[in-house]
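User: Hi! I'm working on a homework problem where we have to compare a predicted structure to a textbook description. Could you give me the structure for the chain below?
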Amino acid sequence: MEIQYLGTAAAEGWPALFCDCPICHNARKEGGRELRTRTQSIVDGKILIDFPPDTYAHALKNSLNLGQIQHLLITHSHMDHFFPVELIHRHEHFGHNSKGMLYVYGNETVEKGFYDAVLIDRFKVHPLDDSVKFIRVKPFEDFEAEGYHIVPVAADHDKRETCLIYIIEKDGKCLLYGHDTGLNLSAEAWERIFSYQYDLVSMDATMGQQKTSGYHMGLRDDVEFVGLLEEKGCIHKDTVKVINHFSHNGGMTHRELERFAGEHGMIAAYDGMRINF
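Assistant: Happy to help. Predicted structure tokens:
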């Protein structure tokens, strides 16, 4: 299995649009891996995870033909993870020779955002019935997509909606994609997470050096999370542990994040990074 991290920033991007804090100032000066777009990933070139405003830029930078993607998992409705108005461009009028249907999976809030975006008057001449289909998913209700076994798990994030993280399995490999969430998960969520052994764990690291009581994780939370997985036998000696979804408010440059990750047997994600596992 392969995961590519197309974008690795939190909602405001890195450097943040209107910010000149030391971290953002350094990012503009240094460039390279210090620059981050909003978080999005793709698994095996087939399963796209989240759909931020930077999706078009990701497609250009990584030579992705998104018209060939048929499965899109959405974690929650926040703008940096779901920018649905762009989906109108999968209509045949704009997206010639796209491959069949794009299935968009998400919660009821994501579903409302989807229809609110694509059913506005100016798009009614280009209905998406033959191009994009929304499928509402619920926590712990498994489903199959192109041979992948996918388990939505209730996240610890925005209490106004049922935010999700995802377990993705195929051909004996298993990925835990844990963005955006804190550690205050339900007993049912922990039970489901602990019922798998993972070859790659991708963890929220939004808070950086800060410690939080939920909503997101920081680096100390990531270390704690890995410890819990180890205790339950959910990771093995070759499990890849990745920290991702970074904010400038975390107070660390990418070089500093890499140093921390290396000291704890982890990898700090950067835009464009690919991992085979």
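For your comparison, note the following. The CA atoms of residues 104 and 274 lie 23 Å apart. Residues 219-231 form the longest helix (13 residues). Good luck with the assignment!
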